[in-house]
Amino acid sequence: MDKKQALNKAMALCARQEYCESDIRGKLKTWGIGEGDSDAIIQELARQKFIDDLRFSVAFVQDKVRLNQWGRIKIRYMLSSRKITGSIIDQALDRIDGNLYTQTLREMLQKKDRFLATEMNPRIRREKLIRFGMGRGFEMDEILKILKTD
């Protein structure tokens, strides 16, 4: 595949779905495109607004909070694993609706609490809820706030 074909294929991919720069770099590498050509293709995609790491990060954050019920910690980790810069991650995480975030955590913990109904020891039950929330990437203080009010 030559540089022009790779650019067109990358444009077609980006037109259908949001991708970050590292995702496209990975695809270009699998297509056999060299480092120099990859840089030029990435620059052209960014210039024409086909890729934008901030736009990708905002969409990623919204999807993961709503659909996957992930917390900020897990989202931050997953974005950083895709080589998104810390400042872009912070901007994307700042756009989370606080009420939606809290409500998502509350509903998730309530559902898990109903599942743990057979556990009679309240301390063990609380520890299991905390571990569950942290495993989903929520902050300890957010979890404790919810458990205090419920």
Strand portion: under 5%
Biggest sheet features: none
> Please, how many helices?
9
Stretches with pLDDT under 50, minimum 5 residues: none
Q: What would the average pLDDT be, to the nearest integer?
A: 95
Give the SSE string.
HHHHHHHHH
| Rg for CA atoms | 20 Å
Please give the share of residues in helix. Answer: over 70%
Short description:
The protein has 150 residues and is mostly helical.
Secondary structure topology:
Blueprint: H1 3-16, H2 21-30, H3 35-47, H4 53-66, H5 72-81, H6 86-94, H7 98-115, H8 122-135, H9 140-149
Helix pairs in contact: 1-3, 2-3, 4-6, 5-6, 7-8, 7-9, 8-9
Question: What key attributes describe this structure?
Answer:
150 residues, mainly alpha, Arc Repressor Mutant, subunit A, 3 domains
Give your account of this protein's structure.
By secondary structure, the chain is an all-alpha fold. It folds into three domains: 3-47, Arc Repressor Mutant, subunit A (Orthogonal Bundle); 53-94; 98-149. It has helices at residues 3-16, 21-30, 35-47, 53-66, 72-81, 86-94, 98-115, 122-135, 140-149. The longest helix has 18 residues, at 98-115. It is elongated.
